[in-house]
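ok new one. same drill as before - C-alpha cells go in, u give me an amino acid for every spot. 217 of them this time. try not to just spam alanines like last time pls lmao
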C-alpha cells in the first residue's frame, strides 16, 4: 500500500481543515514487514520462482476481498486456484491469521498524532481499504479507533479507494463539505481522487511532514 511519491502538501482553501480524513495502511498502520511476507509464503507452502506468482495472485485478487464481496476463506480459495493448487481448511485458517498479522503493526507516532488532533477538538475520520477479518482485528485490539468520528471501511461500504463512491459516502457520513476536509494517504492515486472531489490532499511520507502540513509541528 506504499507508493513512492513527492509530498503534495495541502491545497485548496487556506487555513486549517475542519476535518482530517486518514488512510490506515502506510499512514497510521505499517505496511507488511519482510517477516510478515515470509510467514505468508511459508504458510502457503510457496517457494522459489512460485513466489512471484503468489504475490501476483495475492494483489490482483485483493479488491473484492477489500470490498467485502468475498470473505477470507473465499479469497484464499481464489488465490489457490490462481496458483493451480488447493488450500485445505486448516491451511486457509492459518493464511487468514498470517495475513492479519502481517498488517497489524502500527506507527505509535501517528497514533499519538491522531489522539492529539482529537484532544484539540479537531474532527478526525478514517477511510480505509480493508478486509473484514483485519477490520475486526483492529476493532478488538486498538481502542484509539474511537478517536475517529467516522470509520468508513471498504469491506462494509462495498467501495474502495480510489473509487469516488468511497469518498462520497464518507463525506455524507461526516456531513462535511469536501473543501473542509484534508485527506491523508500514502498513495498519490488516492489523493488525486480526493482532490477531484474538492478535498484538500496530502501525500503521506512522515509524521513530521504531516504535522507541518497541519500546522501542528
Amino acid at each position: 500500500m506504499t507508493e513512492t511519491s513527492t509530498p503534495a502538501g495541502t491545497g485548496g482553501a487556506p487555513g486549517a481543515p475542519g476535518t482530517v480524513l486518514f488512510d490506515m495502511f502506510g499512514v497510521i498502520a505499517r505496511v507488511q514487514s519482510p517477516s510478515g511476507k515470509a510467514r505468508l509464503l511459508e504458510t502457503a507452502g510457496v517457494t522459489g520462482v512460485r513466489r512471484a506468482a503468489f504475490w501476483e495472485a495475492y494483489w490482483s485478487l485483493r479488491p473484492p476481498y477489500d470490498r467485502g464481496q468475498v470473505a477470507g476463506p473465499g479469497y484464499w480459495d481464489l488465490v489457490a486456484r490462481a496458483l493451480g493448487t488447493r488450500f485445505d481448511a486448516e491451511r486457509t485458517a492459518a493464511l487468514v491469521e498470517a495475513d492479519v498479522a502481517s498488517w497489524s503493526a502500527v506507527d505509535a507516532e501517528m497514533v499519538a498524532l491522531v489522539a492529539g488532533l482529537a484532544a484539540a477538538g479537531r474532527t478526525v475520520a478514517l477511510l480505509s481499504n480493508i478486509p473484514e477479518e483485519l477490520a475486526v482485528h483492529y476493532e478488538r485490539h486498538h481502542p484509539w479507533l474511537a478517536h475517529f468520528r467516522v470509520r468508513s471501511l471498504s469491506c462494509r461500504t462495498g467501495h474502495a479507494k480510489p473509487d469516488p463512491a468511497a469518498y462520497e459516502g464518507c463525506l455524507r457520513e461526516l456531513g462535511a463539505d469536501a473543501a473542509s476536509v484534508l485527506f491523508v494517504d500514502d498513495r498519490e492515486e488516492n489523493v488525486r481522487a480526493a482532490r477531484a472531489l474538492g478535498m484538500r490532499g496530502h501525500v503521506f511520507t512522515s509524521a513530521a511532514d504531516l504535522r507541518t502540513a497541519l500546522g501542528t509541528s
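The beta strands are 19-22, 123-128, 150-153, 181-185, 200-203. and btw Confidence is low (pLDDT under 50) at residues 1-14.
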